[in-house]
Amino acid sequence: MTDRSAPPTSTPAPRSAGSRxxxxxxxxxxxxxxxxxxxxRIAARMSRASEEHRANAAAxxxxxxxxxxxxxxxxxxPRRARLRLTRVDPWSVMKTAFLLSIxxxxxxxxxxxxxxxxxxxxxxWESINKTVTDIVGDDASSFDxxxxxxxxxxxxxxxxxxVIDVVLLTAIATLGAFxxxxxxxxxxxxxxxxxxxx
Length: 198
Prior knowledge:
Elements: H1 38-58, H2 62-74, E1 80-85, H3 90-121, H4 124-136, H5 146-149, H6 151-187, E2 190-195
Antiparallel strand pairs: 1-2
């Protein structure tokens, strides 16, 4: 009895995933990434940019915060300080009064000189002499008003008064400083309120 075995069956070779036969390729598997179209990518990037912009706008910026603080600081009321003048230095008062009184004396002398020069140039003294001569007659022919209130006489008198004023004003100011210090020691002095300029 002959043993008949089944004819050997040939196992077909496994095909590669990308080939269907000679010269043909199968479509790519699900594991391969597929790039979205260009319009979808642009839309996605635009949406991300808009979300970032909204997030930045919602967050407070440091420059705006500093500007708000600066404006709030400008709106505060001006500061005030109450001070008390308890002592005045008599030496400084004397020096200041001396210089101011000298300036006042110089101004007085110059003013008198200018006024008398203008009156002389305007012919006021001659007019006064003529009027006195017309009223009195020939007896007043030797009368001259400049012998009494001439420029030299008036300037000399003005300088003398100015020197006396310098001495008196300096002494009075120094004495006033001493008196103020005594009064401030008893009563506390003058209160001064200083305010900040806007």
